[in-house]
Amino acid sequence: MKAHDVALVGGGIVGACLAEELARRGLSVVVFDAGSEPGHATPRAAGVAVPSLRYAQDTEFYRWLQAGRGRLDADIARLEPEFGTFSVARPILRALRPADAEVLAPHVEAAETVRWIDAAEAGAAAAGLKLPAGRRLLHDDTGLMVDGRRYLAAVREACLRAGVTWRQGVTVLSVEEGGSADGSGGSGGTVELSTGDGRVRADRVVITAGAWAGGDGLAAGLPVFPQRGQLAVLTGAEQPGAILSSAFYLAPGLDGTTVVGATEEDAGFDDRCTAAGIARLLTFACAAMPSLAGAEPAGLRAGLRPATRTGHPLTGRVPGRRRVYLCAGHAGHGLLSARHTAEGFVAGMLHDAWESLPISMCPTVVMEGSPAS
């Protein structure tokens, strides 16, 4: 039975970044991903890589998300010259209800790249948009679109070059902590993974399985659940000049398309597009940019975001387990924060230095109400 230092269960962008960080530190790493292609939510994401303002009052977490953008920018600068373009910078224009704008006003005043604008300025910045009446308009120069499939492909290739073993299409059925690596038992122990392709032993296991992280065979009861997001891709019409964030978002894709999304639905593990969901998106798109009424739907897709009840990812040791860790629950911030998460997680797992990750992301705090020992 082959042994590894670390086994990761899940090969989306969070798992891939974590695998690369571990391998670059000299560890033997294996990634198991059950799908026919790497990741689930990652390649289906719209790719709007900006911190959500819904967390602006949660100062520690919002600052962590902003720092994640810096690490994503560094990843783009490192990977794109070798693996091709997977991102494009675009301003983001948020149409906010007055009550939301009032809450956010102090945060806007402290930001260097964000400013309130009027309808005339908005029209100049994003021609063709028909903005909702009665909204305050917030312009941010630092909007970013990331193609999740291309980004993940680049990080996966970097993983392979760093020596990561990548087992695509292999499902992990169970994760069991056992005795020592030589089979003699003892308190040190290893973890044994039962997969659809045999058994594998690892010193430590990290569950990076996204919406499936709380599965019965992995670590049942983990508070990570699926949230369905549907989106539509339109072609044959002029793209918006900025990312519009309102009831939904309207964003220019990397390939000349326009992306409309995304719903947030509690639909279990049903990842189908529905007529009702897509109708809501297209109604919004045509109202926000009337010229899109003549656009052609080039694709409809839905994915399952890994969500948590706090809205924060969960990163750290699984309560009650010595060698099993969780790194999941990034919801709509996976592309934005994957590299930042991975760097902080590796420091915590290898050196017990978890300080760079907000305490609200600690599984023990969320599940048991106290920090891990």
UniProtKB/TrEMBL annotation:
GO terms for cellular component: cytoplasm. It comes from Actinomadura craniellae. It comes from the Bacteria. Residues 5-343 form the FAD dependent oxidoreductase domain. Pfam families: DAO. This is FAD-dependent oxidoreductase. Signal peptide: none annotated. Gene3D superfamilies: D-Amino Acid Oxidase, subunit A, domain 2 (3.30.9.10), FAD/NAD(P)-binding domain (3.50.50.60). PANTHER family: SARCOSINE DEHYDROGENASE-RELATED.
